[in-house]
Amino acid sequence: MTIPPDPSSNEVLRLVALLRQIDQLLYKVSQSPDWETMRPHITALCEGMYDRMRDESDRIRTLMIPQIREAYLNAAPPQENTIKNRHPQLERPRHAGQPEVPDAQRDEEHDS
Q1: Cβ contact 38:27 at 8 Å
Q2: Which of 2, 42, 75, 94 is at a distance of 20 to 30 A from 81, taking alpha carbons?
């Protein structure tokens, strides 16, 4: 029986490799005698940082947008209730003392 690999262990390995790469670039910066030899290493560090920030922002956005939409949809009042509350149902005028007659029956009496 083979156990499938844990996806989180792959993520840990990727992060460890990334930290090693950053450590190597920082070491190269520390060993550089002047700004001109440091510049390419600092540029690589900054580019990696911007890429990681953009990736993290995209991950957050893909997680949060559906949750925000769901929260707004759940918070909105049902459409039929808001329409009924804004537009009350009009009733036909009745004469005092006469019993209320359903609309369908009244229409039949009026047509004949």
Answers
A1: no
A2: 94
| pTM of the complete model | 0.48
Query: What would the pLDDT profile of 58-86 be if each residue is shown by its tens digit?
Result: 989 998 998 888 888 888 776 665 555 56
Does residue 32 sit in helix, strand or coil?
coil
Structure tokens at 81: 């209730």
User: With b meaning 16 or more CB within 10 Å and e meaning fewer, what string describes 27-42?
Assistant: ebbeeeeeeeeeeebe
d(CA 59, CA 62): 5
Query: What does the block give as tokens for 109?
Result: 């009496």
